[in-house]
Specification:
234 residues; alpha+beta; 6-stranded antiparallel β-sheet; 6 helices; rod-shaped
Length: 234
């Protein structure tokens, strides 16, 4: 269910008081048969005060915009790992996803790397498999993040069937080689610039670790000499 703005009464108070004061001044002027000089001065001050209150209310509407409405995402809370991951890798993914879920508006986290879902955490739908659609493919190919601020208005939202069906916002952040960190929020337009920069840094850290893990696995196979690791790292 959507959450209402807790400051809506305070936000509208100057407008209401200013408008009411203006109406009362007008009635007083109409119903007074003869105005004295002091009453005229009082009316001028009252009009100025009402105008200031109305202007303040209008400014508050712009400076303090209504917070995006949040919803309760559909799904079950869970934590799932790729069974092939080492304990050290699971710990790092668990740490990163915990930070995202507790310090941002993120409610679902999916770590996709080289064709595999390594982690799903948060509010999860039954669909676990990730089939890259046009949006995710673009992120993987270009290495540039895509932030869908209001998922409901994008026709391409159908590709995110592995996220809760009423997800409000999505960040697809490149993560290492052929990987992406996919985050689902429960409110539109809810990630700040600072959040986006923080998500980018976290994805870079995870991508470096996962790429190194993949390289180690590749060089441990027959026919892949360990000297290639030294060449790569240099």
């Amino acid at each position: 269910m959507a959450q209402t703005d807790p400051n809506r009464v305070l936000r509208r108070l100057p407008l209401v008081v200013g408008g009411l004061g203006g109406v009362l001044l007008l009635l007083n002027r109409v119903l007074t048969p003869m105005l004295t000089e002091s009453q005229a001065r009082s009316d001028v001050m009252g009009v100025i005060l009402s105008a200031v209150l109305i202007l303040t209310g209008l400014i508050w509407q712009r400076v303090q915009p209504i917070a995006p409405e949040a919803v309760t995402l559909v799904g079950e809370a869970g934590l799932e790992f790729d069974a092939a991951l080492s304990e050290a890798t699971k710990t790092e993914l668990a740490w990163a996803s915990h930070l995202l879920l507790t310090n941002t508006v993120t409610r679902s986290v999916v770590v996709y790397h080289q064709g595999k879902v390594l982690l799903r955490r948060g509010i999860l739908p039954p669909q676990a498999e990730v089939t890259p659609g046009p949006i995710l493919k673009r992120v993987l190919e270009t290495g540039k993040a895509i932030y869908l601020v209001n998922l409901s208005i994008y026709p391409g939202r159908v590709e995110f069937d592995y996220l809760p069906e009423n997800t409000q916002g999505v960040i697809c952040q490149p993560m290492g080689k052929d990987g992406a960190l996919i985050l689902a929020a429960n409110a539109p337009r809810s990630y700040t610039r600072q959040d986006e920069a923080w998500v980018e840094g976290l994805a870079d850290k995870l991508g470096h670790s996962l790429d190194a893990l993949s390289l180690d696995a590749l060089n441990s196979e027959p026919g892949h000499p360990t000297s290639e690791v030294a060449t790569f790292e240099g």
